[in-house]
């Protein structure tokens, strides 16, 4: 089955975020969920779209939901309302690096998703790759180089050494960040300097990986009563790479949900995603991006603790392929967070 949906034009303004309720009637026992969306990262627009969709879905299940930006009013609002659960749907720095989750822990508020320490491990791609390798999972060979090293040693000698070590093609990406911002696939050595410049526009340190070819897949994991469960894999077919436009502009990418895999392959990638979720000590939900090569090896590219929830995002497509009701599954995630808090 092929899945594709048109996305609304992104908005820079926090228009559409729900105003906080003037008062809260807790007598009826309805849990209050605060969905955090927006922030100031490069992925603000994606976060706003994710937040709105999740808030609408949760409201349809009977929950009281407030959508709030990450701004100077947030802490006072959280202290005053004391929501039952917070769902951080923030992408990029602060949303995924554990800092907002640290603040929620300091406030003593339950929330959906992974805790701050494990979030920091996942946010730093080289560290998370080391954890995955230690757990026996495959991930593309790589080196990590800061921008300062190129100044100290000279850019060309470093690039030449890198190509001799890893070969071509290569994937250059920031060590921190998401939505493929600053990511370039390099097939010719003379294109490396430009790729490094684009990468360093999003961070001081670059992760350079050996490119792996094969079927590009995303496997979402949701924690259920029996532990982490993998949803059906979603296959991604994008001309020119799965970049920012391919992720969020309708028509740029073809998705197959479930992926066109044999039963054994589907079971294999599901197992890899669950093992990655457990090795990194993730909680409630995650998404593992990987490539299944021609030899049958599943190479983990990265793991996401705050998967996108937009019209074109991969986790909602996986939910649809699984036959679950999207709003019902989001409610189950909230209920899991509530149960753990109690």
UniProtKB/TrEMBL annotation:
Subcellular location field: Cytoplasm
Enzyme class: ligase
Protein's pathway: Cell wall biogenesis; peptidoglycan biosynthesis
Keyword set includes Cell wall biogenesis/degradation: yes
Residue ranges of every copy of the ATP-grasp domain listed in the record: 129-335
Regions of compositional bias (Low complexity) in chain numbering: 1-23
One GO molecular-function entry: D-alanine-D-alanine ligase activity
Pfam family, one: Dala_Dala_lig_N
Reaction catalyzed: 2 D-alanine + ATP = D-alanyl-D-alanine + ADP + phosphate + H(+)
Domain of life: Bacteria
Keyword set includes Ligase: yes
Segments for region (Disordered): 1-26
InterPro entries with a match to the protein in the record: ATP-grasp, ATP_grasp_subdomain_1, D_ala_D_ala, Dala_Dala_lig_C, Dala_Dala_lig_N, PreATP-grasp_dom_sf
Keywords tagged on the record: ATP-binding, Cell shape, Cell wall biogenesis/degradation, Cytoplasm, Ligase, Nucleotide-binding, Peptidoglycan synthesis
EC number: 6.3.2.4
Stated role: Cell wall formation.
HAMAP family referenced in this protein's UniProt entry, alphabetically: Dala_Dala_lig
Entry's family note: Belongs to the D-alanine--D-alanine ligase family.
Protein name, UniProt field: D-alanine--D-alanine ligase
Organism expressing this protein natively: Promicromonospora aerolata
Gene this protein is translated from: ddl
């Amino acid at each position: 089955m092929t899945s594709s949906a048109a996305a609304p034009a992104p908005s820079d303004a926090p228009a559409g975020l729900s105003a906080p309720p003037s008062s809260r009637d807790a007598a009826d026992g309805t849990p209050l969920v605060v969905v955090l969306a927006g922030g100031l990262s490069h992925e603000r627009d994606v976060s706003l779209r994710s937040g709105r969709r999740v808030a609408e879905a949760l409201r349809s299940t009977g929950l009281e939901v407030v959508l709030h930006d990450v701004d100077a009013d947030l802490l006072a609002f959280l202290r005053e309302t004391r929501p039952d659960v917070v769902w951080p749907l923030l992408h990029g720095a602060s949303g995924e690096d554990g800092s907002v989750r640290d603040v929620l822990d300091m406030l003593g508020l339950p929330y959906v998703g992974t805790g701050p320490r494990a979030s920091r491990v996942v946010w730093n791609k080289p560290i998370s790759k080391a954890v995955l390798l230690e757990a026996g999972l495959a991930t593309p060979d790589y080196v990590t180089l800061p921008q300062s090293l190129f100044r100290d040693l000279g850019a060309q000698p470093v690039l030449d050494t890198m190509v001799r070590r890893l070969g071509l093609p290569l994937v250059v990406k920031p060590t921190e960040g998401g939505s493929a911002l600053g990511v370039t696939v390099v097939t010719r050595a003379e294109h490396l300097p430009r790729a490094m410049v684009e990468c360093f526009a999003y961070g001081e340190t670059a992760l350079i990986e050996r490119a792996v070819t094969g079927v590009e897949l995303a496997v979402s994991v949701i924690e259920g009563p029996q532990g982490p469960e993998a949803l059906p894999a979603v296959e991604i077919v994008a001309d020119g790479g799965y970049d920012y436009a391919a992720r969020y502009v309708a028509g740029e990418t073809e998705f197959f949900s479930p992926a066109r895999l044999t039963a054994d392959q589907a079971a294999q990638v599901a197992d890899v995603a669950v093992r990655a979720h457990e090795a990194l000590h993730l909680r409630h939900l995650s998404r593992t991006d990987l490539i299944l090569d021609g030899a049958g090896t599943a190479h983990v590219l990265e793991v996401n603790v705050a998967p996108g929830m937009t019209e074109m995002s991969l986790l909602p497509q996986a939910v649809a392929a699984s036959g679950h009701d999207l709003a019902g599954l989001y409610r189950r995630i909230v209920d899991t967070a509530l149960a753990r808090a109690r």
